[in-house]
Design a protein that fits this description.
Length: about 110
């Protein structure tokens, strides 16, 4: 079992005049520290061949169609875990808690 490190990513949003609009916080897990064969067994990334993109653009131009593009940067956040798959994460710095017997606790994602 590999316990992944984590951290808080903090961001301050401002109005154009410089006043604070809101504070944003995001809990991040270092997924790049996963070990193949221990934490995951397969990877999947949808990719497109450039010939397909050129063909679609050619068809759109010939048929006088409009094309649109979308980039989903956080799709993995909403991906369900497979049954029986467990991911353990270290507590973020400053929020650590220990069990009554003094052992460091970890977070279990599900």
């Amino acid at each position: 079992m590999n316990v992944l490190p984590s951290k808080w990513a903090l961001k301050l949003k401002r109005f154009p005049d410089g006043l604070v609009k809101k504070f944003k916080a995001r809990f991040c897990v270092r997924g790049d520290r996963q070990i193949e064969g221990v934490d995951f067994f397969e990877t999947w990334a949808p990719v497109v061949q450039w010939t397909t993109v050129r063909s679609m653009m050619t068809l759109a131009a010939k048929m006088d169609l409009q094309s649109a593009q979308a980039d989903i940067t956080a799709a993995f956040v909403h991906a369900p875990l497979d049954p029986g798959e467990e991911i353990y994460v270290k507590q973020p710095r400053g929020h650590e808690r220990q069990s009554p017997d003094g052992k460091e606790l970890v977070l279990k994602l599900h």
